[in-house]
# Entry
Amino acid sequence: MEIKKKNKFFTFIFSFIPGAVEMYMGLMKNGFSIMGCFALPFALCTVFPYILQGVFMAFMLLIWFYAFFHAWNVFSLSPEKLAGLEDKYIWEEFEFKGKLKLPEGAVRKYMPIVLIIWGLSMIWSYISRIVFRIIPDEMWDNLYSLINDVPEVVVAILLIVIGIRLIRGKKKELEAETTEDVTPVNMIAEGTKEE
# Structure
């Protein structure tokens, strides 16, 4: 498919749908991947109705803004640059140069945890609906928030634990860097500065 500029009015209309302008202009991989990145948090919002819904909605908003401005940046390219533009997935546009590398075996290590949490969330949702039918109306108001918020509390605790582990890991890296900086050459250089 030829990549070219098309009608400005339809470009404006399509720019409100993530990935649609890119697909309209012939960048099918690029547009489809943007659309997929927008649809994924939306799908996760429906799967996790209570857990992390705000986080997924925030990601959707960020992706929507990115997609809107990405569409107009692509549309504003000169015809020569547009003709030379390669149709690639959106994540290929970011050149991380090895910075975003998953350690070997990380997916096999952490994916089961994600699947277990996902499964527990679905089971909790099912069980809580059954419990809500059993609870008498007088006790409903007091117990509803307790039962309903348990998954969010569990996820919040998990996030705090992960955050603490990341901070400890970063602290160890910084300590290792500072010990490497204290070499005899650096100590001599610091000694001459003080004199």
